[in-house]
Amino acid sequence: MEAGELATPAQRRTWLEAQLQTQRGARALRDAHRAWLHVASITPLSKDPGAAPEFTPAVVSDMFAQFDRFVAESFAMGPKG
Amino acid sequence: MMTRAARLYPPHSDLRDAQREGRSEYVPLAAAREPRFPAPACCRSVASACLGIAACTGKISEPFGARDGDPGNVSGVTPGPLSPEPTGVLNGEWSTAPLSRITRVQLRNIAADVLGAKAEISDVLRDVQPDDLAADTNLPVDSYYQVAQRLAQEAVATGTMKGRCSSGADVQLCVRGAVTEVAPLLWHRSVDAAEIATLDTQVLAPAAALGGDEALTVGLTALMVSPGFVFRMEEPTDVAGPLSKLSSAAVATRLSFLAWNAGPD
């Protein structure tokens, strides 16, 4: 890090946006949205297999993956996407 | 003698002066870096010092308000007793937040990024309770030490440090090289040669007799029970006065914690 490289708001914005485009940035966005929407609290959710036979662990896993991809896609497209 | 708290936080008069002059944010100065390295036998006492400070400011908690009723640490920043109201985190002038402790998620992220260690730690990482200090208990210290040890063991067994010092004649030299490499990443700031030399003398030299993998585990554990890991100690550009601008590296670290919820690479 060179002195002055992050001296102005524009420089810091550029730096920050570059960081958000990385895998670590995607992870942070995912974790933030999971926590914000209390996703962890519904992780152990289960339903009566007799009443909802299609609600399998695989479906639950897919739903969480879908959530993560939605967050990633939303930020990738930006506000006008 | 100046107390530790007085060295960590600017005195009230400085705070009033800064507010009067429109400088509403502080940065903790170099005194916040002490103590620097624990010897193996001293790891727990240093961790105790960390957790003692931690107990004064809140919990080692999840960020983003993950738990109901958790009053703070939403961004990992725990305001100290003399913290002024922040008016902007990155205004390019002055820093707020006297001393920030990393959150559980940040701890996991850093361990995964730097060491490739992803072990579950929630079963041993215990919140510091308000009564812990009065109760004279070692439970929080033991808890934190176990976390550091578990992550270090995983790093050496299967993570980024796997096989790093398993063979070779000079164990201490190898471990010192590995520790020197990861210390800035684990401490979220630059680490100078004197700090490495102290660590070498107090921790790595005694541990060298244990063999490469074990000695490396001890060294990594020492890094992770250090206040340098537990707290985000920001580097000022001027250590002469009570106030200082953040260094570019410190600003970069703030941005990394904002964007990545982890330290810079």
Q: Quick check: average pLDDT of chain A?
A: 84
Distance between the terminal alpha carbons of chain B, to the nearest Å?
Answer: 38 Å
Strand order of the largest sheet of chain B: 1-2
Largest sheet of chain B: 2 strands, antiparallel
Total of helices of chain A? 3
Rg value of chain B: 18 Å
Helix content of chain A: 55-70%
Q: Give the helix/strand class of chain B.
A: mainly alpha
Let me know the average pLDDT of chain B. Answer: 71
The low-confidence parts of chain B are 1-16, 22-93
Give the N-terminus to C-terminus distance of chain A in angstroms. Answer: 33 Å
SSE topology string of chain A: HHH
Count of spatially separate domains of chain B: 1
Helix content of chain B: 40-55%
**How many β-strand stretches of chain A?**
0
Can you describe what's shown?
The complex is a heterodimer of chains A (81) and B (265). The model of chain A has no long low-confidence stretch (mean pLDDT 84). Chain A has a domain at 30-81. With 81 residues, chain A is mainly α. Chain A contains 3 helices and no strands. Chain A is 58% helix and 0% strand. Chain B is an all-alpha fold. Chain B has one domain. Chain B has helices at 4-8, 12-20, 43-57, 104-115, 132-135, 139-157, 171-187, 193-207, 212-224, 227-230, 248-260; strands spanning 100-101, 231-232. In chain B, strands 1-2 form a two-stranded antiparallel sheet. The model of chain B is unreliable at 1-16 and 22-93 (pLDDT under 50). Chain A binds chain B through residues 1-9, 12, 15-16, 19-20, 22, 24-25, 27-28, 31-32, 35-36, 38, 40, and chain B through 62-66, 90, 92, 105, 109, 113, 247-249, 251-252, 255-256, 258-262.
